[in-house]
Write a structure and sequence with these properties.
With about 120 residues, this protein is of the alpha+beta class. It has one domain. Helix content is about 30%, strand content about 30%. It contains three helices and five strands; from the N terminus they run ααβββββα. Strands 1-2-3-4-5 form a five-stranded antiparallel beta sheet. Strand 1 and strand 2 form a beta hairpin. The two termini are about 15 Å apart. The model has no long low-confidence stretch (mean pLDDT about 90).
Length: about 120
Amino acid sequence: MNKEKLKREVKELSLLEHNWDGYGAEQFTKEMIDKVNDVINYLDDKVIDPSCIVPCYDGIGLKWKNNKNSLVIHIGDNITYSYISYEEEENNSYGKIFDYNEINGLLEEFYGEEK
């Protein structure tokens, strides 16, 4: 994992100004950027880089893709995850993350079939 590259991408998001989405989204606070960087620091070095880092009106998402599935870790006031299966809708799941260890566990499960 290239954590420094990811942190540069997050830094670019910190430069977005008020109304960056055209719908009144606020600029990301230093606390929000620090929280995202904390999550990145905690990720296992063996984890594949997210396919993208996306700004959201209420936080920042780290998104991974695997075949026709995606896993998004959303970092806002809370840290949540969304697992989306584009083939098997009944396998979709969402939840709140209480411990950063859960993120590495989710990623291990997500990519487990490829290892």
